[in-house]
Structure formats: C-alpha cells, structure tokens
Amino acid sequence: MSLSSLKDELNTGIDSLDYEHRKLVGVMEDICVSFDHGESSVSDLFGTLHARASAHFALEESIMREKKYAFYDTHKADHEQLLDRIRFMMDAYEDGMCKECNTSLRACLEAWLAGHVANADMELSALAERQP
Ligand SMILES: [Fe+2]
Ligand SMILES: [Fe+2]
User: Fold this and answer.
1) How far apart are CA 34 and CA 43, in angstroms?
2) What is the pLDDT of residues 112-122, one digit of tens each?
C-alpha cells in the first residue's frame, strides 16, 4: 500500500482521526523525500513524526475511554509498540534499510502506519456510528 493510498482509502469515519492520519502520512512522505535526497532533515522529521504520533495516539485513546471501548488496552499497547518502532526506524534509517524487517525505509514506514490503521483503527468506525 502506497502512502498516498493510505491517505485516501483508510477512513474511520471519525473526522478528527482521519484528518490526523492524513497529516501523519504527510510527515512520512516528507521523511521519504528527504531521505531520497540525502538531506540532513531526516532525523528532525522523525522527531516530528514521533511527536505528532504521540499526540494522535493520545487523542484516539481519549475517544476510546470516552466511548468505553472494549479493546482499549490492546489498542493502547499497540500504540506504545508503534512509538518504539519510530525510535527503531530513526536509528536504522542511515542504512536505508530496516534491519528488523529487511525492507526499505519507505516500505517500513508504510507498513508501520498501514497495518495499525487498517486493523485496529478501522475497528473504531463502530464508535463513529454511536456519535450523536
Ligand atoms: Fe490512528
Ligand atoms: Fe490507533
């Protein structure tokens, strides 16, 4: 799944979350472009991604708590793993390959967000239907 299709195809129906997913993909695209051009801004952009992802996960978790979402603990644990993974990618990016999954930085970034949004976040669509 490309980063642009991630932006366009995965919608939970909760506007604030969908907006933030698109913004996160924007930062990921900036990282890939910066990396491809050998720019020194890559590590700063990874810092931006970590900060924005942390804020995004906090928003999602507050919505899940408010709606008494049954799978809150599992979803939150997944968020914590995703933040750890950003740190791992940040350390590994200079080689252009992720040592853990043996894929390119771009593929690793795509898999990082796509897997979580396509599975855990899409299940939050049920919460959107309960909004007044
Ligand atoms: Fe999310
Ligand atoms: Fe999530």
Assistant:
1) 10
2) 888 898 889 99
